[in-house]
Amino acid sequence: MSNHLNIIVEFKGGMELLFDNVTKKELSLPVNSGEDGSAPVEWTIKDLINHLKEKHLKERPELFVNDDSIRPGVLILVNDVDWEILGENEYKLADGDKVLFISTLHGG
Amino acid sequence: MCSNLDTDIPVALSKIKLDQLQFCKRCQGKPFVVIQRKDVFCRDCFYEYGSHKFRSTIGKTRKVKPGDRILVAFSGGAGSSAMLDMIEDGLNKSANHKKLMFSPTILYIRELNYANESDAIITQKTHKIVERLKKSCLSSMISSMEMIYQDKEKPTFVDLGDFDPLDKDCPIINDKAQSKFWSKINSLSTDTSKEDFLRISRQQLIQKVATAGNFKYIFVGNTCTKTAIQMLTDLAQGKGSQITSEHSFTDSRFNVEILKPMREFIKKEVLFWNILRGTEPVEWSTITTFKSNKASLMKLTESYINGLEHDFPATVYTIFKTGNKLKFPDPNGVICKLCKSVIDPEQRCSASNALQLSHQLSKNLDDVFINDGSDRILCYSCNNLVNEIKIDSTVSPQKLGIADYLLYD
Ligand SMILES: [Zn+2]
Ligand SMILES: [Zn+2]
What is the pTM of this model? Predict the structure, then answer.
């Protein structure tokens, strides 16, 4: 039996434009359980950003990421709390977490 | 006020080592947002902080009196959504010293489809905005961008109840005016000019409606972040002389004075206010949506400031405060016909003159703007903009007024 981490990802404030106008995704992320060596053991926000960029992004990656990190001007909330309080990129995702990406940029 | 953090630590917080975790700076409660990387607030304290800031921004200028009729410009975006929510919330407060006493009406201006989005998306966004207005305890008026070219005898706005986006007979839907609008936009060669054109058009239209409705003031939802971005963009475009009026709390260049009650909020605060209060803004795509960071001067400035803000969290405040220290230009100076700013006398001898000279020298624009009397006094940047609009070659240059290049009476 393989392990999965189930989370919800939401896009607002123009971020949804980059994801085909989808505002909410339920993701089941593979967790390394010994069988699947390529999956991370734990998922950080940084891993999630990278995963979204590689697997889900529909338009222009430069509007989403900037050198491996989120583009300045995009805010992230985990379970309705500012990610700056939670350790930003290093925050470790837990089952059931809701991650919201919201753009401060005018017109997306 | 706020529950102390013991038993109900949210999942996301429980995994942070306790010595790293920051708590609300006012009540030590559960953190919700951190402003400028130092001020942590819980939800309740952030709410108090926001509504106090809104009230005091309006209150400290002592302009707005009980009963004043105010036109609230609502675009559906984050800034004006938060402003509308703060107004509605403030009108309903029970404590007298916290209650807002003025009498607001909402104005929503329907924008055109600048980023070529699908009809389905446009319809969906319009529907969301109309539903938001219906939910409000305030009355709303609707106008549309093309109304700057509305036929003189026709209305430029309708009441919310009379608005039907699919009804061709709705007075604020005018295909002829709309195509005139598009032809003006399309004749501008850069996105920077297009953004400028839209900004001036919007300003003029809001003024038109506010004047017709006899309003005392106009409220706009410009945040501190937007002000800082616009200020640097304006400087780069040679609009130094109008920065003070355009970006201070009160802007009295026009018929009806404009006030900016959101101007002390940074964009992050506005977004967290909307999350806290469950207001759902509708972001209308702009000329530069989907385009690169370098598409326009404003977009470039925005990404520059955001990049700086990432490492120096006080960037926006610093630009904003520096702008506040600038002196208002001499009110007896010459006024630009288009943006109504005082034209810097120094500037008339430098930037504007150089520009005029270069146009005098260019073959295509012979004597269109030059030596044509006092009717065409424009500041440096408006002169730039007007010169960029392509001239209808069937009209003789002598008969052209500013209105032919841009807008309105
Ligand atoms: Zn608190
Ligand atoms: Zn001007």
Answer: 0.86
